[in-house]
Amino acid sequence: MSASQKPVSIVLVHGGFVDGSGWRGVHDILTKDGYEVIVVQNPTVSLADDVAVTRRAIASASHPVVLVGHSYGGVVITEAGNDRKVRSLVYIAAFAPDAGESVETLIANPAPGAPVPPILPPQDGYLKLDGARFADSFAADVDPDTARFMADSQVPWGVDALAGKVGVPAWKSKPSFYLVAADDRMIPPPAQRMMAERAGAQVSETPGSHSVYVSRPEQVARLVSLAAEQAIAVA
């Protein structure tokens, strides 16, 4: 390990409808700061598959891991974070389920007046967002060209992945951090705050859409770095 390299690895887990490329800005900041960064490319077909892929990424890391999840990626890290190599969890506008919960159960009873994500009817067991409404719901503060590309390059999200239930939540035994996106129209901010409080997370909040990890990489990287610094301090 070089003198400038930090003794913690960062593993970034994307959510549904997108792939790992949206982490580019966060990746670049963290690697410049001396962290090894691994970007997971989950198939988002089933929770079990995504947890397995994420665990392989954790196993490949050179150091103890700070595990970061956006959106549905929060479900993945809640399960995969039980790996002994994982030191802490960072949720970015993400689901943080308790035992027996899934995305499906967490979105089953939206609060009155909450925005309704423009999810199209399933096709062959997969979901997509209405491309014409993608930017407004998912990426309202992302530059229009990038938001259009994100809409046009959607990764179909498996219905089985939404139904995947968490066993033992890793946040019950490991430190967690949560970044609330105050302008999110996919996961309502009040729901984010509730999940963060329940998990006992250190909470930060920033203006931003559901794609805050794309639009505000500096704020995301700052919280990830805080988690990493605390992991180093207790190593």
Automatic annotation (TrEMBL):
<keyword id="KW-0378">Hydrolase</keyword>
<dbReference type="InterPro" id="IPR000073">
    <property type="entry name" value="AB_hydrolase_1"/>
</dbReference>
<feature type="domain" description="AB hydrolase-1">
    <location>
        <begin position="10"/>
        <end position="222"/>
    </location>
</feature>
<protein>
    <submittedName>
        <fullName>Alpha/beta hydrolase</fullName>
    </submittedName>
</protein>
<dbReference type="GO" id="GO:0016787">
    <property type="term" value="F:hydrolase activity"/>
</dbReference>
<dbReference type="InterPro" id="IPR052897">
    <property type="entry name" value="Sec-Metab_Biosynth_Hydrolase"/>
</dbReference>
<dbReference type="InterPro" id="IPR029058">
    <property type="entry name" value="AB_hydrolase_fold"/>
</dbReference>
<dbReference type="Pfam" id="PF12697">
    <property type="entry name" value="Abhydrolase_6"/>
</dbReference>
